[in-house]
Amino acid sequence: MIPEERVPPGQHLTDHLPVLHEGPVPSFDPATWSLRLFGLVEEKVVFSYEQITSLPRVRVVADIHCVTTWSKLDTVWEGVSFRQLMNHVRLLPQARYVLVHCEHGYTTNLPLEALMDDDVLLAYRYDEVPLTPEHGYPLRLVVPKRYFWKSAKWVRGLEFMSGDRPGFWEQRGYHNEGDPWREERYSRSLPTARPK
Ligand SMILES: Nc1nc2c(c(=O)[nH]1)N[C@H]1C(S)=C(S)[C@@H](COP(=O)(O)O)O[C@H]1N2
Ligand SMILES: [Mo]
Prior knowledge:
Elements: E1 12-13, E2 35-39, E3 45-47, H1 49-53, E4 58-65, E5 70-81, H2 82-86, E6 97-102, E7 107-111, H3 112-115, E8 121-126, E9 129-130, E10 140-142, E11 155-161, H4 168-171
Parallel strand pairs: 1-5, 2-11
Antiparallel strand pairs: 2-3, 4-5, 5-8, 6-7, 6-11, 8-9, 8-10
The structure holds ligand MTE and molybdenum atom (MO).
The ligand Nc1nc2c(c(=O)[nH]1)N[C@H]1C(S)=C(S)[C@@H](COP(=O)(O)O)O[C@H]1N2 binds at residues 17-22, 66, 102, 106, 135-136, 148-149, 151-154.
């Protein structure tokens, strides 16, 4: 496929991976780090970092699209597929949405169904080497079919919910779904963009 057909409307290609986030890069202590699966589950599940990295590893090659208009083709991620992780938790039947919780309070929301897609993973490697701290080490979500703000870095918890709840950017005017092919960038004008 020629690259133009892989670049969604309003996007342009970049060949490096820019670093974008709110707040400081968190430090990582494998002795105290955990990933918590909670909310509408039969029993809460807590993974250590060692448990996460000993689960079967998948490799995903994906095009990623940031709402700030850059796209990068063929990015290579390795980690645990979201689906694989779901084999280790018993969800209650009402669970339909997930709020992803990160260090320093960053959150993002996704339908459970979107996370069960083949190309969704919790990554700990990027471009054949361990993720760097600024790109989300020790563990980040990668959801290629949504704008990149939904690919949360420094993930510490997955909360299963019956109803949807907006995350950090979704509360601040970003689109709830964020499909790059539909240009779902913003749901309303941002406060700074409003006329005085
Ligand atoms: N925890 C956390 N994850 C985050 C963010 C953030 O501020 N905090 N920013 C998001 C945004 S807006 C983008 S574009 C991507 C950038 O990922 P990168 O720095 O690895 O390119 O991370 C996303 N994940
Ligand atoms: Mo972003």
